[in-house]
Amino acid sequence: MELSKNDNIELNIDALTSEGSGVGRYNGLAVFVNDTVPGDKIIAHIIKRSKNYAVGKIEKILSPSPSRIESDCPYSQRCGGCSFRNMTYDEELKYKLSRVNDSLERIGHLDIQVEEIIGAVSVDHYRNKAQYPVSVCDGELFAGFYAYKSHRIIPCSDCRLQPKEFEQGIKVFEKWVEAADVTSYDENTGRGLLRHIYFRKGFATDELMACAVINGDGIPKADLLIDLLRKNLPSLKSVVININKNKTNVILGKTSKTIWGSDTISDKLLGKSFVISPNSFYQVNHSQCERLYEKAKEYAGLTGSEVLLDLYCGVGTIGLTMADVAKRLVGIEIIPQAVENAKINAALNKITNAEFICADAAKGAELLRKKGITPDVIILDPPRKGCDKVLLDTVVQMSPKKIVYVSCDSATLARDLEILKNKNYTAQRVTAVDMFPRTPHVEAVAQIVRNN
Fold first, then answer.
1. DSSP class of 438
2. Residue 60, exposed/middle/buried by CB under 10 A (0-12, 13-18, 19+)?
């Protein structure tokens, strides 16, 4: 039978996509269905039919997968952020492990298997950062998260991934918005003031930062907002406004103004202290971050005689946690504020063998190469898109003995490992780390060694 829109079909779910949607096959055609678990047998209602695939929604679950559980979040099906709240955590880890292995084999054409996946101790309230898109209607604030593949806000102040303090902070902003008659930013017209509400927390210190991302230079009744935040958030350390007047979906602008307290908050990782600014990159899961960095340090295998180059270094976290077993550390980062934080972090920890350069990773690495600085070990921690070929060429020209690649996307990791394989570097070990429980994302770290 030819499949058409609005058909109801029986479907066995046997796989998951990289975004967490279930996949079944109907006469050889892939059918994608959200909120399903491998092992589910369902009646799917077809809502889209294209040449090579179809999309359905659950009409009825005929027999649930042994791994299916009841979601403990009332927002999960509408929000789409937690794709795996309807399956056991063991099954989630199995999927993430297989996903990294599949990428290494299918995309990287590599003969290597992931050693292990390091699961999280806790799957709830682990995020140290939240950015809430907002809408104000008739003076009432609605803050939450965008629905799956849309810019429609699902109001949700008590997300199970966020610390409880963030929920209290949202309630404060609700009172301030009503009292100060604050408007929300309209993407279509470019008008309106409040774009996002942004919180950061240092899990080891309990310090909190509250930030209003605005389409303007200031906020009305700032003293009221500060007073309410201080009364309701005892660990508050910083209140900031971030200015973003651009017509863009990029959340943060380049300029931040502290209107109360400190410009930064602090945290501790592996015994080292770090200061964090609004724009600084900092891993969102504190406990898993420590386990990831411990594995990266193991893979680096430093003995105290090596020059260590940390590309995409952010506030210096990875490199500085290894500085005590390196001869010299050089970090490169494109965000000026993060570089300043990295320098402060080095001084804070009395680390004297580190320097940090503000530059694009590829240009910075090329600058070091021209200066004759030859690193023994290079750390790569790129954004989700991975490393560009210019950077990888420069890294190879530096001829390090070892590369430690920290990745938040196994597909781009596998792609880059294949490129390095063709340039005389072999991936020897890979570990997956579940930094983002209940979501489709998984981190991985690879040890790559220069062939003799």
1. T
2. exposed
Short-list 392, 343, 385, 383, CA closest to 365? 392
Q: What angle do CA 70, 75, 79 make, to 5 degrees?
A: 115
From the list 73, 82, 211, 408, the catalytic residue is 408
290 burial level (CB within 10 Å; 0-12, 13-18, 19+): middle
What's the mean per-residue pLDDT of the chain? 94
Lowest-confidence segment of 202-211, 292-301, 332-341 by average pLDDT: 332-341
CA distance 239 to 262: 8
Contact 354, 378 (CB under 8 A): no
Give the residue among 287, 168, 280 at the shortest CA–CA distance from 235.
Answer: 168
pLDDT in tens, 263-308: 999 999 999 999 999 988 889 999 999 999 999 999 999 999 999 9
Q: Which helix (H) or strand (E) holds 211?
A: strand 208-214
Residues 431, 100: Cα–Cα separation, whole Å: 9
Polymer length in residues for the chain: 452
Q: DSSP alpha helices (H): ranges in 76-157?
A: 76-79, 89-106
As a whole number of Å, the end-to-end CA separation of the chain is 58
Residue 65 has pLDDT above 70, yes or no: yes
Cα–Cα distances (Å) from 63 to 36, 71, 84, 428, in that order, read 11, 17, 18, 42
Q: What gap in Å lies between CA 355 and CA 332, rounded to an integer?
A: 9
Residue 118 backbone phi and psi in degrees, to 5 = -90, 105
Tell which residue, 177, 196, 189, 344, has the closest CA to residue 256. Answer: 196
Known catalytic residue at 408:
yes
Question: How much is the pLDDT for 432?
Answer: 98
Task: Examine the pLDDT at 353 and tell me if it is beyond 80.
Answer: yes
Tens of pLDDT along 1-44?
A: 688 899 999 999 999 998 889 999 999 999 999 999 999 999 99
CA–CA distances in Å: residue 194 to residues 24, 111, 159, 212: 42, 50, 21, 7
Helices (H), 64-156: 76-79, 89-106
Whole-angstrom distance, CA of residue 119 vs CA of residue 276: 26
Residue 264 C-alpha from the chain's centroid: 20
What is the share, in percent, of the chain residues with pLDDT greater than 90?
Answer: 83
Q: How confident is the model at residue 337 (pLDDT cuts 50, 70, 90)?
A: confident
